[in-house]
Amino acid sequence: MNICPDIAANVLGSVVKARADGGHRVDYVRIIAPLDHEEHELKIISRLFCEGCGSYSGLTRPGVDRLLLLANRPADEPCQGTFFLVGRCLVCDGDYQAARLVDVSKLTTLPS
Asked: Taking the alpha carbons of 14, 96, 106, 61 in that order, is the dihedral positive or negative?
């Protein structure tokens, strides 16, 4: 039985890739806030912000390891007190691009 894609999307819903039009700015207060209980339960150890689509994500150890590699940083670099900025992410592009590790202690002012 074939179902029209429009009918299926209306009944079942659909997932649309986020628009990666760029220019999104991180909310530094949000990204550096202490991890909450739910994040600890999910074993989140760091966060990222995508400048391409504006999404925030929590990262587990495998995600951190992948981004450290993309950012040309040592695999054993501690991630406490840091977060990642990426140009594109899994949500908008299917993979990470232009990863940078940001050390919160080196931020002298929090940009808006």
From this structure: positive
**Sequence-ordered alpha helix ranges (H) in 1-112:** 5-12, 28-32, 37-41, 61-70, 90-93
pLDDT tens-digit series, residues 2-24: 555 565 556 655 555 667 777 88
CA angle 35, 100, 87 (to 5 degrees): 100
Which residues, including other chains, have CB under 8 Å from residue 82's CB and lie 6 or more apart?
46, 101, 102, 103, 104
Report how far residue 67's alpha carbon sits from residue 96's, in angstroms, rounded to the nearest whole number.
8
Q: Are 23 and 92 in contact (CB under 8 A)?
A: no
CA neighbor of 111 nearest in space, from 24, 14, 42, 3:
24
Q: Provide the pairing of β-strand 100-103 with 56-59.
A: unpaired
pLDDT by residue (tens digit) across 46-88? 999 999 999 999 999 999 999 999 999 999 888 888 999 999 9
Dump strand ranges (E) for 1-112. 46-50, 56-59, 82-86, 100-103
